[in-house]
Amino acid sequence: MNAPYLRVTWTDEITGVTGHLVVDRLRRGVASGGVRMRSGCTLREVTDLAGVMSLKEAVVYRPGDRYRPFGGAKGGIDLDPRHPEARNVLKRYFLAMRPLLEHHWATGEDLGVRQATIDGLMTEIGMRSSVDAALAHVPDGAEAGLRRLAHAFAVTVGEIGLGDLTGGYGVARAVTSALRHNGEHPAGARAVIQGFGSMGGATARYLARRGLRVVGITDADGLVVNPDGLDVETMLRARTVHGGIDRDRLGPGDRELPGDAWIGIDADVLVTAAVSYAVHEDNHERVRARYVAEAANASVTPGAEAALTGRDVVVLPDFVVNSAANSWWWWTLFGDIEPTAESAFAKIDETMDDLVDRMMRAAGAGGTPPREAAVAIAEANGAAMGGVASGAGLSPYGAGSPVSGSA
């Protein structure tokens, strides 16, 4: 397996904090991928995530779209995002990475980093946007594309911005598509969501709206459960900026459990929407769900996934189920959809239904896990796009990744 195209490690001269950027591959000279901030973020993690981004870009390719996928990249900073110096560290990181941001790396929000913060910092360092590297490829010009993005980010649905909903909306659609493919009815199925940030919160909302009972949700302080189903909308209205659950707003049937109890809750669907490597070799035996949906990138290690597959647990891979947030940016920027919720959700529905059905059919016909089937789709799309792609080959994880155990 080839090494990633580029690895950069940066040390903040003021705080000593370390940050990384990995470009897994370039297409048309550009790689796409967000920047995360969390205590303990490593180069290995960022490398894995950059590889996932290459897959995520390629797997949604449609010949009729104006957007032609880029390569994959990821940034990461080893710092608690609640640290008082977090914003200043992120600004210095962007200043250090500015030459790459201008020409090769299009980025956006990820774990621990909000898009509004990124947008403010881009203005402060004199850049138009965090996707400047992609703007030369917009068919009707950069300004038209940026106007569409600005209009789309101004849209709210049920008091939540569209940009915070598209990822979780896509996860929920992928889950219900997989259930229906297997002849199961989403209505009444039970779901547990690990994480209540942008991805986890939106997934919870749209699973509930599709008839599933969300019986458990975690945040940094623990797990809240209700076998009859949690009141997701009330919890969303009281959610903190860092995805915290307001315990003062819990319903009469809700109860609290320790944070690590999420993995063993009796449910049909387990959604990992918080951190990478959440399901690993030391805890996968506790999973009781029949489906695991990776709303967070690289949230199930390869060893754990193999073991779950051996138990007939269907693991829906990250680069498929959580691809809508990334794709929505590009569909909007390039003009494949209008900057409205209706247009965004319709495109996500069409794309996710088709992609999940193709993945599940290929997995069923060949007796392979869904991930392998989806990788084959991404590789075929990459070949169909043509041109030269520099960097690592398409793979579930980054080159040489020794992913095992917890992280």
From TrEMBL:
InterPro entries, alphabetized: Aminoacid_DH-like_N_sf, Glu/Leu/Phe/Val/Trp_DH_C, Glu/Leu/Phe/Val/Trp_DH_dimer, Glu_DH, NAD(P)-bd_dom_sf
Signal peptide limits: none
Keywords for the protein's UniProt record, in alphabetical order: Oxidoreductase
Gene3D superfamilies, alphabetized: Leucine Dehydrogenase, chain A, domain 1, NAD(P)-binding Rossmann-like Domain
Residues annotated as domain Glutamate/phenylalanine/leucine/valine/L-tryptophan dehydrogenase C-terminal: 163-386
GO molecular function: glutamate dehydrogenase [NAD(P)+] activity
Recorded family membership: Belongs to the Glu/Leu/Phe/Val dehydrogenases family.
UniProt protein name: Glutamate dehydrogenase
Source taxonomy: Bacteria, Bacillati, Actinomycetota, Actinomycetes, Streptosporangiales
